[in-house]
Each structure stands twice: as structure tokens, then as C-alpha cells.
Design goal:
single chain, 3 domains, alpha+beta, two-stranded antiparallel sheet, 48% helix, 204 residues, 6 strands, globular
Length: 204
């Protein structure tokens, strides 16, 4: 019964994998993460820096609680990125391009892909996606994306890239709505200058 409820929740958000398949993705993502990413500050920082943290009221001996496990959250996000990502064949068909051209753009880093063995998965966040007759359809690439991805460090984790690309930035503010910062994705979809996002990407 629990598996059915989980399956329904996954499908409601566009994830077609079974709970077992999703668990395999999560296991893969955890294995790909750096060991020691959550070492307690007391084991990692110099004494002077620890003293500053302690004076500010931070508990330097505490690790993450089971209810707020950043690795689990990142693993789940990574699994979702993989499961909803597109294959080279799917992207080529959606963009009406040859598969070789999509591979070329991946190698040039003007499209973003996650390598899985000999194949690639291309996360959806870099595409314009429309709903047509209840189905998600790729209508094109986010404008200007070809200037942004090359400016990012290749070592950036896919989840970190996705969060940066979809989170509002105080550096991206439209003159007409200054109180509402835009995410890099929103900025580009609005047809604004991609060079502004590329400059930000250099510091990610």
C-alpha cells in the first residue's frame, strides 16, 4: 500500500520510475558524492575559526539530524534530475536536430548533460517545456544558455547547478519589478541579456 502511494506521488510530479528504480538512482547519487562532506566543524576547522563560530552561538559539534539530512535531500534531487532528464535521441527529436549535433553541443558545453556510462542524460531545466494535451513537450532550449554553461566550472555538482539556475539572484533584477529578483532561468526565458548570467556563472 505504501509503495502504491509513493508511486502515485512520484507520477504526480512527472517521475515514472518505480520506488525501487528511484532507490537505485538515490544509491548511485550518494556513491558519487564526496566522502566527508558533512564532517563536523570541530573536526575540520582551525581553532581560531571554531572560536568565532562558538562565540556566535553555533554548535560546532552537531551533525545533521535525520529530519534534515542534506545528503539525503541532495541525493533525492539528483535522482529526480536523472529520472526526468532526456536522452540524446529525445532531445534531437524535440529540437529537430541530428543526434550528432546534440553530442557536439554536449562536448562544447553549450548543452548540459550528466554522463551515465556511455550515455548522456540532459536535465529538463535547460529546456523550454510546454504542456500539450496533458503531456510535457520540449519546445526549445532556454535562450542564451549556450553562453552560460561554458562559464560554469565543469566540476559543479548537477544539483548545485540546478539550484543556482532556478533560484532567484539579487544580481538579476528587472527595472520594472526591482523588488522581485529573478533566477537565471527566468532571466533568460524573459529574453534578457545572457551575458549578465554568464558573468554570475563564473563565480559559482
Amino acid at each position: 500500500m505504501a509503495d502504491r502511494s509513493l508511486q502515485a506521488a512520484l507520477r504526480a510530479h512527472g517521475i515514472t520510475a518505480t520506488p525501487r528504480e528511484l532507490a537505485a538512482f538515490v544509491a548511485e547519487s550518494v556513491a558519487a558524492m564526496e566522502e566527508g562532506a558533512l564532517i563536523r566543524a570541530a573536526e575540520e576547522l582551525p581553532a581560531a575559526e571554531l572560536a568565532v563560530l562558538q562565540s556566535g552561538g553555533f554548535d560546532v559539534d552537531a551533525g545533521p539530524s535525520p529530519e534534515d539530512d542534506p545528503i539525503a535531500r541532495t541525493a533525492a534531487a539528483y535522482a529526480a534530475l536523472l529520472q526526468t532528464a532526456l536522452t540524446i535521441k529525445e532531445v534531437a527529436a524535440a529540437l529537430d536536430r541530428n543526434e550528432s549535433r546534440v553530442r557536439q553541443r554536449l562536448l562544447q558545453r553549450t548543452l548540459y548533460g550528466i554522463r551515465q556510462g556511455r550515455s548522456w542524460r540532459l536535465p529538463l531545466f535547460q529546456f523550454q517545456v510546454e504542456e500539450r494535451q496533458g503531456a510535457r513537450v520540449v519546445a526549445g532550449v532556454v535562450p542564451g544558455i549556450e553562453l552560460v554553461f561554458p562559464a560554469l566550472t565543469p566540476e559543479l555538482h548537477p544539483v548545485a547547478l540546478w539550484r543556482w539556475f532556478t533560484s532567484p539572484s539579487t544580481e538579476l533584477v528587472a527595472d520594472e519589478v526591482p523588488e522581485q529578483p529573478l533566477s537565471p532561468r527566468e532571466w533568460l526565458l524573459a529574453g534578457r541579456d545572457p551575458k549578465a548570467v554568464a558573468r554570475l556563472a563564473q563565480d559559482v
